[in-house]
Amino acid sequence: MDQKTKHMSPKSNDLTPAPRANRPPPLLDGAGWLSQATFHWVQPMINQGKRHEIREENLHTLSEQDECLRLAHRIDGAWKQECTQHPKKPNFWRMLFQVFKKDTIVGGVLGAMESVVKISQAVFLGSLIKFFQDPEIPLST
């Protein structure tokens, strides 16, 4: 392992968990898919903020999937694999894509679907406006 690779790959024993504070459990873990999609799971924290100032001890812990230590282990393992597969020229961006591939693809597909729906809404609204301006004109051209 060369000097550059050593610098970019932390030792496994360097990744020790920080002590957890006595905080409420994560709100996101108990939320259903609809609550996650609409961000309704944040409502208890918003209500608490309306009643009084939110302090650090009131903040909920992170969801396990978002824990820094877990992500650090995933990235560390992926970097070691990248250095093994491509020892002469490891690629940081390729490694990041491997770690977050699922999230990236799902986000891209959902973003594309959102774009299609927004464009379709504009086209449909234009057709609807034309129809109400002159109902005798056919909708298709």
Integer average pLDDT: 82
How many separate helices?
Answer: 6
Q: Characterize the biggest β-sheet.
A: none
Radius of gyration: 24 Å
Shape descriptor reads: flat
Helix content: 55-70%
Q: Per DSSP, what share of the residues sits in E-state strands of 2 or more residues?
A: under 5%
Task: Output the helix-strand order.
Answer: HHHHHH
Structural class: mainly alpha
> Runs with pLDDT <50, length 5+?
1-12
How many strand segments?
Answer: 0
Distance between the termini: 66 Å
Task: Explain the overall architecture.
This is Multidrug resistance-associated protein 4. The structure is a single chain. With about 140 residues, the protein is an all-alpha fold. Helix content is about 55%, strand content about 0%. It contains 6 helices and no strands. The protein has helices spanning about 5-10, 35-40, 45-50, 70-85, 90-100, 100-135. The protein is flat. The protein starts with a helix and ends in an 8-residue tail after the last helix. The relative contact order is 0.09.
Brief rundown of the structure:
The protein has 141 residues and is mainly alpha-helical.
List the helices and strands and how they pair.
Elements: H1 3-8, H2 33-38, H3 43-51, H4 68-85, H5 92-99, H6 101-133
Helix pairs in contact: 4-5
